[in-house]
Design goal:
With about 220 residues, the protein is of the alpha/beta class. It has one domain (about 5-224): Alpha-Beta Barrel (TIM Barrel), CATH 3.20.20. The protein contains eight helices and nine strands. The two termini are about 25 Å apart.
Length: about 220
């Protein structure tokens, strides 16, 4: 059975200097999982998060941790991140030569596979087997790794096309919106096929408001 997650919190947007306080806020909020971005400096021009932070976090939360490997050759890193505590490993078709083999490897090591598509990537039918098996499909609406970006408008239609393709083939895998997800953009993202959200600096971690308040506002925007 696939997950019933709705809202994930982006670890790259946490206050990493005050993780104990940040975790307390996360655990008080209606957040279903933690989204942990790893970018290798080649998949996008930045380096973000790694094994030591995950190893430090894992003993302090029972929430599922999804590691998003925005990297080339994710097979080189899958075992390390599962050993460090990842429950879900998300990989990109743009970064691996064999999605299904990578998915099998993830399951063999005791984690669940998920799929991610860059904002400019158009879903194709050769990805359908992985899409059907994935816990969910993250559709990036910005480039991976950099906080504070605005949604790339072309991502909306690509998300709609992805949802239509899944529905046409009877695949009920959920689509996750990731990038500039907030109360203003959520209704449009939902309209274009998103049924899960990842919250970051523009929606979940706002100055002057608690994470719990922001998370509830995001969920309310989904219902509208």
């Amino acid at each position: 059975m696939k997950n019933n997650y709705i809202l994930g919190g982006s670890v790259s947007c946490f206050d990493l200097y005050n993780l104990e306080r940040q975790f307390k806020e996360i655990h008080e909020a209606p957040i279903d999982f933690m989204h942990y971005d790893v970018v290798d400096g080649r998949f996008n021009q930045c380096l973000i998060l790694g094994l030591p932070t995950l190893q430090m976090m894992r003993p302090h939360t029972e929430l599922p941790i999804e590691v998003h490997l925005a990297v080339y050759e994710p097979e080189l890193y899958i075992a390390q991140f599962i050993e460090a505590g990842a429950d879900i490993i998300t990989i990109h078709p743009e970064g691996t030569k064999d999605l299904m083999e990578a998915f099998r490897y993830i399951r063999k090591l005791g984690a669940k596979p998920a799929l991610a598509l860059r904002s400019e990537t158009i879903a194709t039918e050769d990805m359908l087997p992985a899409m059907e098996e994935a816990e969910y499909i993250i559709k990036l609406t910005v480039n991976p790794g950099f906080s504070g970006q605005k949604i790339q408008p072309a991502a909306f239609e690509k998300m709609s096309a992805l949802r239509r393709m899944l529905d046409t083939h009877g695949i009920d895998t959920k689509i996750v919106a990731d990038g500039n997800v907030n109360t203003d953009t959520i209704p449009t993202l939902v309209q274009h096929g998103a049924s899960m959200l990842i919250g970051g600096t523009s929606g979940l971690f706002l100055k002057g408001r608690s994470v719990k308040e922001c998370a509830q506002a995001m969920l309310d925007a989904m219902k509208q």
